[in-house]
Design goal:
Oligomer: single chain
Helix content: 25-40%
Bound molecules: zinc ion
Shape: globular
Radius of gyration: 23 Å
Mean pLDDT: 94
Largest sheet: 7 strands, mixed
Amino acid sequence: MKNALPILIGCALALPATPARATGDTEPGVVIVNARVLDGTGAPARKVRVRLAGDRILEVGGPAPRRGETIVDAAGLTLAPGFIDTHSHGDGQIFDLPDALADTSQGITTIVVGQDGGSPYPLKRFFRRLDRHPAAVNVAAYAGHGTLRDRVLGDDFKRHATPGEIEEMKTILEKEMSAGALGLSSGLEYDPGIYSAPEEVVALAKVAAASGGRYISHIRSEDRYFWKAIDEIIEIGRQAKLPVQVSHTKLAMRNLWGKADRLLARLNRARAAGVDITGDMYPYLYWESTLTVLFPERDFENRDTAALVLREIAPADGLLLTQFDAEPSYAGKTVAEIARMRHSDTVTTLIDLIRMSEARRLETGDGGESVIGTSMREPDVERLMAWPQMNFCTDGYLEGPHPRGFGSFPRILGHYVRDRRVIRLEEAVRKASALAAAHMGFPDRGLIKAGQHADLVLFDPATVIDRATPALPHAVSAGISRVWVNGVLVYADGKSTGERPGRVLRRAAGA
Ligand SMILES: [Zn+2]
């Protein structure tokens, strides 16, 4: 395949193969020549040289390479700021898979973890461990509301928190914020967040706001109570006076299909009224979560609820179990297939499956199930993708069951930009880099500009495409040629280089 692209790392003189890490004044740096440079602002590409020195971009459009400098000839390729994944589940495996191939192979140079209300605790220790054992990519984190609830309420979480408990959570959150959390994340469709009163979340969001932080949320409902959940996040932004972001924005129920314009109008109205609300999304028609999330009242035995799930949210042949520890032979099969195997109907089967995984959860503490559900429509995905305030994410694991973990950004560039022409390439790059940096509060990443950190991706807009599928979720994308993090090459010619220059991105003062 045309994955190995015609790149030459030519050395003008005998030089180390990896870029110099000291400052450019004293040591020769790297010059990338002949690239079409998209700087992340949304401006058209320019053919200019980009010179790196140490971990920074030294100059853009400077003079020809000098003796001693390493030349990267990028003829025919496009150079962009490294992509920023604003909703990553990489925290689970980052110490086991520090090369983070899922990320670097799609041009991602920074991941933002601690999502959906769940974060490593305490963040101070997680960050210190990452400082000592860096990954190939930069890592920033939110402090999770569910994690705070877990610390304070423990197993007794199926209720509102008391004022005293909210005070305790606020104290813990303050510590997480001073450790460098970007803000507060929530997962209000999951346990334990689903049992919180809106006032509890507002009270905590105010703590994040007091430290200049943000709020990011898997909102309280992505299907039946969607509009109420959108109103709730807008209200949190209004009351707590901080930027709020809707995680993995989607229209994932039959009666929400075709309502993208209505959603965007509501978000734009909130913005016009002074609420800094933004969103991120991944480019697939199917999500990945648990079966239990489909039952917001947790009425797992209710046949009417199960029937509604299969009729309105995801059909039985669109619910694919990717993991099912209670009966491992069901993994890789849809609920429709399992119903046939069990000589049963799909409603009964869905109820039976949840009963099995809940029994397992009571026994082992983990239901051990994961499902991919097909609930979205292409026109809605395209309308949302084009919203100027929508940046991109993977919502992926470093080795997870959904192809989004390996394929999201190349899929946007190949399928949605080149093939479907949903947005222009320069706009897609802006959303993947500078817009995401603005939404996360990273002041010196996301642009190709002198002084910025040298997080860069070199790719071929003509061939870039995702290859990961539900059957092969870890297939590496095509068309991503080279990726640098803090000036160091981390991915080239389809492979990790083994370098791990990633840093912890603690919340910047005043960002
Ligand atoms: Zn989520």
